[in-house]
Design goal:
Elements: H1 9-22, E1 33-38, H2 45-55, E2 59-64, H3 71-76, E3 82-87, H4 88-98, E4 103-110, E5 114-116, E6 131-135, H5 138-150, E7 177-181, H6 183-186, E8 195-198, E9 215-216, E10 228-233, H7 241-252, H8 254-263, E11 269-270, H9 275-293
Parallel strand pairs: 1-2, 1-3, 6-7, 6-8
Antiparallel strand pairs: 3-10, 4-10, 4-11, 5-8, 5-9
Helix pairs in contact: 2-8, 4-9
Length: about 290
């Protein structure tokens, strides 16, 4: 689920004010401004992306948000045309929780989720009983806990899964204690904890590089499809030609691809997954969530 990372409130307010006047006209024609919500608006590749889109006849405005909780409600409310910040699991959880029908219209990349520390150089050095932080949003919390389990730091009830949370940590069989924090805070918490699971968007906030990771999951695993990041839109917009062109621009602009990989410290794997596969994965995860809640 790969946030400048802190976006000025004024910028967001201005951007959303503009969207109020334009969202009604945002039909996807080349004459409209297509507003895309992101949580990495300070990354240089977005400027290259908007330039490439303009050369293709599409006026794009990148709208920056400061955390993951904001772009989906903005898209649902019609304040955005698209967003690009989340993986399928995150979108599925939002859709189920809010009775929404946002849908993937194209993939971008998959990012490994890593464990970092400013106190220890390896997992083995983390002492018994130490505290490790994980993101508190449901999808990344479960994924982070699975990273900790693979690293031998915790044991999860029933082996864990995409619904695991900190209450599923079997303390008597785990080496460390686990706390959950806002994803934007896990990086800045490092002085106070032994280690933390940090999303790629926040690694730089901790003064770290992706190569500093002590442990991470495997993005090449076929079971990792639900963690592929996507462009999301309102349901029914999957065949919008302008939006599909914007997905193509992301994949076919070398400066953008290079910028995405650089921003992730070289960890991003660009993936162009068929939309039908993305939608099937979303439907499967939503069904699992609903069954689990039931």
């Amino acid at each position: 689920m790969p946030l400048t990372k802190k976006v000025a409130t004024a910028t967001i307010v201005i951007a959303m004010a503009l969207s109020v006047s334009s969202c009604g006209a945002a039909s996807g024609s080349d004459d409209d401004v297509v507003q895309i919500g992101v949580v990495s608006s300070g990354e240089p590749y977005w400027e290259k992306y908007t330039k490439a889109a303009a050369e293709a006849g599409i006026d794009v405005e990148i709208v920056g948000f400061s955390d993951y909780a904001q772009p989906n409600p903005a898209l649902s409310a019609g304040e955005l045309d698209l967003n690009q910040f989340q993986h399928i699991v995150y979108l599925a959880q939002y859709n189920v929780a809010s009775s929404s029908n946002l849908t993937p219209i194209g993939s971008t990349a998959i990012y490994p989720l890593g464990l970092y520390s400013t106190k220890y150089d390896s997992v083995e050095q983390i002492p018994e009983g130490a505290t490790v932080a994980v993101p508190n949003d449901e999808s990344n919390q479960a994924r982070g806990l699975l990273v900790l389990q693979s690293a031998g730091l915790v044991t999860l009830k029933d082996g864990g899964g995409i619904f695991s949370n900190v209450n599923d940590v079997v303390e008597s069989e785990s080496k460390v204690k686990v706390i959950s924090l806002n994803a934007a805070v896990t990086a800045t918490s490092l002085p106070d904890v032994a280690a933390a699971i940090i999303n790629n968007d926040f690694i730089a906030d901790a003064g770290l590089d992706a190569e500093d990771t002590l442990a991470q999951d495997d993005p090449s695993d076929p079971n990792a499809l639900p963690y592929v990041n996507i462009f999301a839109a309102d349901e029914g917009e999957e065949d919008n030609k302008t939006y599909q062109k914007l997905v193509d621009i992301y994949h076919n602009t070398p400066a953008v691809v290079k910028g995405v990989k650089k921003a992730s410290g070289g960890t991003a794997e660009i993936l162009n997954v068929p939309v039908k596969d993305l939608k099937k994965s979303l439907a499967d995860v939503e069904a699992d969530i609903e069954a689990n809640d039931g």
